[in-house]
Design a protein that fits this description.
263 residues; alpha+beta; three-stranded antiparallel sheet
Length: 263
């Protein structure tokens, strides 16, 4: 009965973590480029009471064994990097990646981070930056007298001037992919950084080497499925309730045993 209490407690703790992940997904349902987080669980150690195939009499062996589990625990959290929905904005600095890959930005400490959020802005120096002010890498400067910018699917950025018939190329956008994007570490602000598990970044031209293409004047919205998250929340709530009932049942059994002792 003591085992039942501890096992049920691990189930309740696991469902609490699942609810935390669901709450984060729902909170970011309108976050541009957000990727939903999934939670994976695994069972804990087992106490082996009887070995499968154990010899019980001469040549007679048991067809099955006896193992008692100790509950569950959180194994990992993974990102669902499937494509989000498309939102047309008509803003020339809004870009989305149609396919695999990330935009590469530079952090204040010189490190690089990666994002699917293509809602870029122009800094006071004319540099193309994220909403937090992190510059897109390689750097792209938009001249003060540029009337518009054009971004091709393969990442070529051109500036349009009133006194010129042909636009002028001012930079190129590179995309980055990883062998294992699930191994990236999220640092907030829609940014990820590489880890040993993700592998080294592979930079390339949009549309080549398995990378997606850049689509201007569109944004990729969150890929959170509200209906699915609500269903998962109901399932987690019911699982939590069932585990709590197991604890109450085990407690009643303790009461019966204690009553027998007093009697």
């Amino acid at each position: 009965m003591l085992r039942a209490l501890k096992t049920a407690a691990t189930g309740m703790s696991a469902q609490e973590l699942l609810i935390d992940a669901i709450a984060n997904n729902l909170a970011n349902v309108n976050t541009v480029g957000f990727k939903a987080q999934r939670v994976s669980f695994e069972d804990l150690l087992y106490q082996l009471v009887k070995e499968p195939g154990q010899l019980i009499y001469r040549n007679v062996r048991t067809p099955t064994g006896l193992e008692l589990g100790c509950g569950t625990q959180l194994a990992s959290t993974v990102r669902d990097f499937t494509q989000g929905k498309v939102l047309q904005t008509n803003n020339p600095l809004d870009m989305m990646i149609d396919g695999q890959g990330f935009f590469k930005v530079q952090l204040p400490d010189g490190r690089f981070a990666y994002t699917r959020d293509g809602a870029f802005k122009i800094s006071a120096d004319g540099l193309v930056v994220t909403s937090e002010g992190y510059p897109l890498y390689p750097y792209i400067y938009v001249p003060d007298d540029a009337q518009d910018i054009i971004v091709s699917k393969d990442g070529i950025v051109q500036a349009v001037y009133n006194d010129q018939v042909e636009p002028e190329e001012i930079g190129r956008i590179e995309l980055t992919r990883f062998v294992n994007p699930q191994g990236l570490r999220s640092i907030g602000n829609n940014l990820y950084v590489e880890t040993v598990a993700s592998g080294t970044p592979i930079d390339g031209t949009p549309g080549e080497e398995g990378l997606g293409v850049v689509v201007q004047r569109y944004l990729e919205t969150s890929n959170v499925d509200i209906v699915k998250e609500m269903v998962n929340m109901i399932v987690a709530q019911r699982a939590y309730e069932i585990s709590s009932r197991v604890i109450r049942s085990a407690d009643r059994m303790f009461e019966v045993v204690a009553g027998m002792v007093r009697a």
